[in-house]
Amino acid sequence: MISLKLIQDDFPKLIEDLAPRIEVAKEAIAEQIRADAEQASPPNLGIAGKWSVDHTGGGLKVKNSEWRAVFYEDGTPYMAAEPMLAPALDRAAPAFEVHLDKAFSE
User: Fold this and answer.
1) Is residue 84, in this structure, part of any structural domain at all?
2) What residues does 52 pair with on adjacent strands?
3) How confident is the model at residue 7 (pLDDT cuts 50, 70, 90)?
4) What is the domain range of residue 63?
5) CB neighbours of 37 closer than 8 A, spacing ≥ 6?
6) Can you give the pTM of this predicted structure?
7) How far apart are the C-alpha atoms of 43 and 14, rounded to whole Å?
8) The total number of structural domains that make up the chain
9) What number is the average pLDDT over the span 15-27?
10) At residue 3, does pLDDT exceed 80?
11) Arithmetic mean of pLDDT, 49-60
12) Does residue 37 surpass a pLDDT of 60?
């Protein structure tokens, strides 16, 4: 039988210790997603070179400053989608898991 004894007073310290490590993981993954979406952007569409990581609003958002990017990502009734961000998110999921494992094991 395995037993685990938790002391309530340990949780604030645990959270305090984890928060910076999780932030590092989030930053690394956001940058990886940005770079991956950038690499997947066809150079002739006017959206390459416009991917960034936005730190406003208390979170991280990978975005493209070109207003037409959403039409390429999602498609329109007249144009098939050419997604760049969604595949980058899918490819980043395993790496995010590795970063979180590392954050919790340090």
Assistant:
1) yes
2) 63
3) low
4) 18-105
5) 51, 62, 64, 84, 85, 88
6) 0.78
7) 45
8) 1
9) 82
10) no
11) 89
12) yes
The C-alpha angle with vertex 93 and arms to 87 and 98, in degrees rounded to 5, equals 150
Question: Does residue 13 lie within any of the structural domains?
Answer: no
Record the tokens describing residue 101, joined without a space.
Answer: 């494992």
**Matching residue, tokens 């050419």:** 82
- Does residue 5 lie in a domain region? no
- In three state form, how does the secondary structure of the chain look? CCCCCCCCCHHHHHHHHHHHHHHHHHHHHHHHHHHHHHHHCCHHHCCCCCEEEECHHHCCEEEECCCCHHHHHHCECCECCCCCHHHHHHHHHHHHHHHHHHHHHC
What is the rounded average pLDDT of the residues 80-92? Answer: 93
Which residues share a beta bridge with 64? 51
Q: How far is CA 95 from CA 1, 15, 30, 91, in A?
A: 34, 22, 11, 8
87 within some domain: yes
